[in-house]
Amino acid sequence: MLEKAIEQVLLRASIPTLQAQAEALEKTNKAVAIRRIATGAAIALVAIGIGLGIKFALDRNPNLTGQVPQIQAQAIPDPVPQPPAPAPRPPDIPVTKSDPAPTQPDIITTNFTKFANRQVELLGRTWTVSVGHHFDNEADTSWNQAWCYTLTKVNGVEVKVELADRKSPNAKPVAPTANLATMQHAGLDINDALALASRCPWSDGNFSVADLQVPASAKGPMPTPPVLQPSLPSLPPPQPQQEFIAADDFDIPGGDYRVEKEVSLELCTSLCRSEAQCRAYTHNKTARWCFLKDRVGEAQRFVGAFSGLKKTAPTAGSSNAQWR
Fold first, then answer.
1. What's residue 234's pLDDT?
2. Over residues 154-166, mean pLDDT
3. Taking a C-beta distance cutoff of 8 angstroms, is the pair 193, 183 a contact?
4. How confident is the model at residue 227 (pLDDT cuts 50, 70, 90)?
């Protein structure tokens, strides 16, 4: 009996401890349940995020197949193509009509001077013949001076050949106005220059070669008519008089009134012969320059130069030992 009484007393004493252990166990179970619920919710959120990411990737790139379950796509009919709407014109930009093409595109006006061009076929080449008509002011109805020229390239250098000149609208063209050396340098003779001058696009029409006024300087020296001599069988026939006293490798310093470049010795001699002002010339054989002289000085030795002195009436007692 005493033992049962002691056992009852001990049992009653352990009841609070057992209750505390039960409460602790219950709290532990609740905590485990709550953690499991939170873990499941987190897993569900991750699954939803993965699903949304896969759907977004498939929408961006429909070629990604085989990695996620395929979704049955619905057929959507193609839209009927519509013509593009015209772009509206800004209201602040006025609509202007384009200017008609000019009837003479080769006419250019600069500083009251009208230039007109024409293409001419000559010597197997195409020459651009240009005419300039100069007006005093923009209100003038008639020009007061006109000229015609052509440009050509020789060894890469542009050469201007003056073809004709008119002092007034009532005057006929004077042609050619370029010197002989310039024309020959451009590959033209007088007849070629006259042919080009007859094609100048003047504003009042064309002039034929017969209408052109050829200056005396372009015609060259006039031939001296032969002097009839009585028949004298005993006398030898007259010998032609030499025009120039020539000296090779000699220079005549000073007296230059014009210099022609890129000319031959024959052309240099012809230029001096055709001009009354020229008394002598010196031709530099290396540079091909021609120095025309209106005064004659003492000749000096110069290798590479060729000089010519116009022969005048012989002077008694004169010594020209350096000339041959």
1. 46
2. 90
3. yes
4. very low
Domain boundaries, given as residue ranges, for the chain: 11-67, 108-218, 244-310
Helix (H) or strand (E) holding 119: strand 113-122
Q: How far is it, in rounded angstroms, from Cα 167 to Cα 145?
A: 5
Q: Among residues of the chain, what percentage have pLDDT more than 70?
A: 67
CATH number of 244-310: 3.50.4.10
Q: Fill in the amino acid letter for 100.
A: P
How much is the pLDDT for 65?
52
Q: Which of 254, 253, 288, 259 is nearest to 272 (CA)?
A: 259
Q: What angle do CA 29, 30, 34 make, to 5 degrees?
A: 120
Sign of the torsion formed by the C-alpha atoms of 28, 33, 35 and 36: positive
Lookup: tokens for 168: 């007034």
Amino acid at 217: S
Helix (H) or strand (E) holding 196: helix 190-197
Distant-in-sequence, close-in-space partners of 290: CB < 8 Å, separation ≥ 6: 181, 259, 260, 261, 263, 267, 268, 271, 281, 282, 283
* Gap between the Cα atoms of 15 and 96, Å rounded: 110
